[in-house]
């Protein structure tokens, strides 16, 4: 079947934010695209938060889902967040799956894993909001080599 170019992101600069294998099923490649939106922006006024989240999820799926399924032979999950940290349905589902996988791999409890993920998300959203308000003034991010062991959960 053919990818519709009217609603699908096919231009050269249309790229997705993240890809990973094994999220939804073993060895399956999944692409993620992230959107953080301001629920108080003029375009969202008059919408409930739930309907705004759903609108942004549908918009992302309309833009990328067909291409990912047909061209990349992978799955697509839009990760939609409000600036206040509220997640869309797809993002909630992803975070539950990620917490389950993290809990198994790190031999931690599911509540500890989901708490860790939510704390990280809160700080990332806060950092994004601050950077958008005042601009980036910090140092370059620290990169970790694959050989370093990082303790993910705090006790």
Brief characterization of the structure:
By secondary structure, the chain is α+β, with helices and mostly antiparallel strands. It has helices spanning 49-72, 89-106, 110-134, and strands at 18-21, 29-37, 75-82.
List the main descriptive attributes of the protein structure presented here:
155 residues, alpha+beta, 3-stranded mixed beta sheet, globular, disordered N terminus
Explained architecture:
The protein has 155 residues and is an alpha+beta fold. The protein has three helices and three strands; from the N terminus they run ββαβαα. It has helices at 49-72, 89-106, 110-134, and strands at 18-21, 29-37, 75-82. It has a three-stranded mixed β-sheet with strand order 1-2-3. Strand 1 (18-21) and strand 2 (29-37) form a beta hairpin. It is globular, with a radius of gyration of 17 Å. The chain starts with 17 loop residues before the first strand and ends in a 21-residue tail after the last helix. Mean pLDDT is 82; it is low at 1-10.
Radius of gyration: 17 Å
| Widest beta sheet: strand line-up | 1-2-3
Average predicted confidence as pLDDT: 82
Number of strands: 3
Order of helices and strands: EEHEHH
Name the poorly predicted regions.
1-10
Task: Quote the beta fraction.
Answer: 5-15%
Overall 3D geometry?
A: globular
N-to-C terminal Cα separation, in Å?
51 Å
Structural class, by secondary structure, is: alpha+beta
- Largest sheet properties: 3 strands, mixed
Chain-wise SSE layout:
Blueprint: E1 18-21, E2 29-37, H1 49-72, E3 75-82, H2 89-106, H3 110-134
């Amino acid at each position: 079947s053919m990818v519709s170019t009217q609603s699908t992101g096919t231009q050269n600069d249309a790229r997705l934010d993240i890809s990973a294998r094994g999220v939804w099923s073993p060895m399956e490649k999944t692409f993620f695209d992230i959107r953080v939106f301001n629920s108080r922006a003029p375009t969202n006024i008059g919408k409930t938060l739930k309907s705004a989240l759903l609108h942004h999820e549908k918009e992302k799926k309309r833009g990328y889902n067909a291409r990912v399924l047909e061209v990349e032979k992978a799955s697509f999950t839009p990760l939609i967040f409000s600036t206040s940290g509220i997640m869309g349905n797809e993002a909630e589902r992803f975070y539950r799956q990620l917490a389950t996988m993290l809990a198994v791999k790190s031999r931690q409890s599911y509540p500890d894993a989901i708490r860790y993920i939510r704390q990280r998300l809160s700080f990332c959203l806060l950092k994004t909001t601050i950077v958008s308000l005042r601009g980036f003034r910090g140092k370059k991010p620290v990169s970790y080599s694959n050989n370093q062991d990082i303790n993910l959960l705090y006790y």
